[in-house]
Specification:
Elements (H helix, E strand, L loop, with lengths): L1 H6 L9 H6 L12 H4 L12 E2 L7 E3 L9 E3 L18 H13 L3 E2 H10 L21 H4 L1 H17 L6 E6 L5 H9 L4 H6 E6 L3 H10 L2 E2 L8 E4 L4 E5 L11 E6 L8 E6 L2 E9 L5 E5 L7 H9 L3 H5 L3 E4 L1 H17 L1 E10 L8 E4 L2 E3 L9 E3 L2 E2 H11 L3 E8 H8 L1 H9 L4 H15 L22 E8 L10
Parallel strand pairs: 1-13, 5-6, 5-10, 6-9, 10-15, 15-19
Antiparallel strand pairs: 2-3, 4-12, 7-8, 8-9, 11-12, 11-14, 12-13, 15-21, 16-17, 16-18, 20-21
The structure holds S-adenosylmethionine (SAM).
The site of S-adenosylmethionine has 19 residues, from helix 5 and helix 6.
């Protein structure tokens, strides 16, 4: 299957995408900017957000009886919010909304609540009303860098479908499809494998009305009767439907789930070690009417997730940390995925910017291809955090014995072992000089800086790319065996 697919080379019509991205500075990549910046954890970037000290002294409780984790959590005090006006004439709708949330809540909100409002507030969230990708947008993702990315994900999906015994009907779900480019490239690349393409029902999980519209155009969907704006058919007859959550996708069919740069958009809670124990970082409004970060004076509900995450960590890992991020939504979503795969069969592929360890302090904001302060003009910049891959693995294993988790491996290992080298060579056989240059650039952006031995030139000239900073993990029903290329 791999070789057969990779040899069937064709270039799509929308090839100019490369030319647009090439005009960008290296900072155009969403989480992977120039080599020096990309190698630097966001907490060391010059946009660090200062944290106000806690309002009063507190004591700590000791949770050292936990088997592999020993942390103390601040449990003291009642919250006494300071009275101040939150109004400012120049505030955007979203800023006014955030300030009123804080005001009516009677105190600060968690970083996670702030992040969720900033990204997907139904009226003014960052993703809701516009196209944030590409040269005119705020950042660029792998499917927008090269057609080969979606094609290789298609190879992965087809291999899994083969391992599933080539079912006649299969749900192909994409979480957070952006412009729909990955899915369009996947379908175009797989178009010669009619048995596969005929079997798929596509389900797009998307909250943004603006992006849904773009996805319909990218997938060349027609909606002849216009009766339901959440269902359509591609020109080649593949049914597509849109949902807000994975739970809305009908059960009962084997399911293949793709999540590329989705988990990093899920809201994270941030904790900081203080003399009184671990305190949650919260977003408040200062006397000057500006947002500021404060430490919660009392334990917060998310502390339960901190304890859970710490149980999965090694003591040595924990003792070094001054900050920890936890993502309850990632844990919950992973468990929904794992349960679905264990009952319906199939597997999920998660590719994201992240770590194979607990995550410390990674939340970052990007506007117009530059890092900015996370509190600066919320709603106008993307917020994202490193994905905690061990937490995903443990979450899946916790809810089902019928699934197996593979990886994480680096993006360059993943794409390399699936055969991206053969694919680029096949495409290079049949293209103009300009296209060849763009293909090579796209290739190195996807696999550059990776651990796979693709680069044969001098070390100091190793191309910069997303090859090692992006990781791939698969959650697969045990019946399917080990998925490619995690052997
Ligand atoms: C960083 S973009 C990734 C887009 C695409 N996967 C790509 O690689 O180009 C995140 C995507 O997830 C969507 N999204 C973010 N949070 C979401 C949520 N809670 N539920 C559903 N979709 C969400 C955004 O609208 C967007 O389509």
């Amino acid at each position: 299957m791999l070789r057969r697919f990779i040899a069937q080379a064709s270039l799509p019509q929308r090839y100019h995408r490369y030319l647009i991205t090439q005009q960008h500075s290296p900072n155009s990549f969403r989480r992977c900017s120039s080599s020096s910046t990309a190698a630097t954890p966001p907490s060391q970037l010059p946009v660090e957000t200062s944290v106000e000290p806690p309002p009063e002294p507190h004591f700590s409780d000791d949770y050292s009886s936990k088997p592999s984790a020993s942390i103390s959590v601040d449990r003291s005090g009642l919250n006494n919010p300071i009275e101040h006006s939150h109004e400012s004439l120049a505030d955007s709708e979203l800023v006014k909304h955030l300030k009123s949330l804080i005001k009516f809540r009677g105190g600060p909100i968690s970083v996670a609540e702030y992040m969720e409002e900033v990204l997907i507030n139904p009226k003014a969230g960052f993703y809701i009303n516009r196209d944030v990708f590409g040269a005119e947008g705020d950042f660029i993702t792998s499917p927008e860098v090269s057609q080969m990315f979606g094609e290789m994900i298609g190879v992965w999906a087809m291999c899994l479908w083969e391992q599933m015994g080539q079912p006649n009907r299969v749900n192909l779900v994409e979480l957070g499809p952006g412009r729909g480019t990955l899915m369009a490239d996947l379908l175009r690349g797989a178009s010669k494998f009619e048995k596969f393409t005929r079997s798929v029902n596509i389900h797009m999980i998307e909250v943004s009305p603006a992006l849904k519209k773009i996805q319909k155009t990218t997938l060349k969907c027609n909606n002849e009767d216009g009766a339901d704006e959440n269902t359509a058919t591609t020109l080649t007859g593949t049914p597509v439907s849109w949902h807000s959550t994975l739970e809305e996708v009908p059960t009962g069919l084997p399911t293949i789930i793709i999540a590329h740069e989705f988990f990093d958009a899920l809201p994270v809670h941030q904790f900081q070690k203080a003399s009184r124990g671990w305190c949650e970082k919260m977003i408040d409004v200062g006397e000057d009417s500006k947002f500021r970060v404060v430490l919660s004076p009392h334990p917060t509900p998310a502390t339960l997730y901190l304890l859970k995450r710490c149980k999965w960590a090694q003591n040595e890992e924990l003792t070094k940390l001054e900050h920890v991020e936890v993502c309850p939504k990632a844990i919950d979503l992973t468990q929904t995925i794992a349960k679905r795969i264990s009952t319906d069969g199939g597997g999920a592929l998660i590719i994201d910017y992240g770590l194979d360890s607990i995550v410390s302090d990674s939340l970052q904001a990007i506007r117009k291809h530059k890092f900015v302060n996370i509190l600066d003009d919320p709603g106008s910049a993307d917020l994202s955090a490193y994905v905690d891959f061990p937490a995903i693995k443990h979450s899946a294993e916790e809810v089902s014995e019928d699934v197996c988790v593979y990886g994480p491996i680096t993006q360059s290992q993943f794409l390399g072992n699936l055969g991206i080298n053969f694919r680029v060579e096949a495409l290079l056989q049949n293209c103009t000089d300009e296209q060849a240059e763009s293909l090579r650039t796209g290739y190195w952006r996807l696999v550059g800086d990776g651990e796979a031995p693709f680069w044969e030139g001098p070390d100091e000239q190793t191309p910069i790319g997303m090859g090692s900073r992006y990781l791939a993990m698969a959650i697969v029903n045990k019946k399917q065996g080990t998925p490619a290329p995690f052997h």
